[in-house]
Amino acid sequence: MMLPFTRDVxxxxxxxxxxxxxxxxxxxxxxxxxxxxxxxxxxxxSMSKKYDLPWHRVINAKGKISLKPANGFELQKALLESEGxxxxxxxxxxxxxxxxxxAPATT
Length: 107
Hints:
Blueprint: H1 4-15, E1 22-23, H2 24-30, H3 37-47, E2 58-59, H4 73-82, H5 95-98
Parallel strand pairs: 1-2
């Protein structure tokens, strides 16, 4: 059985559209746990393949890729660039341009 927070995180990540990003902390907040950024990171790491998540669209709050060079950084950057996301010379993404704002849930 999947916990509601886990289910919500997976749904949020699956919904991130091409050409947009979300931060670990924003995903956690949207899923109802504002201090759950590390949990989001762990879920992303352990469940991306199983649930076919667009893992590359999740970056840190500074607009940077958290993966290190030679450990996925280059792949993530290439995938984001292939979706039209531009990086600064410091390898940051402008969150004012590329951060995704999902529509509020309606019940």
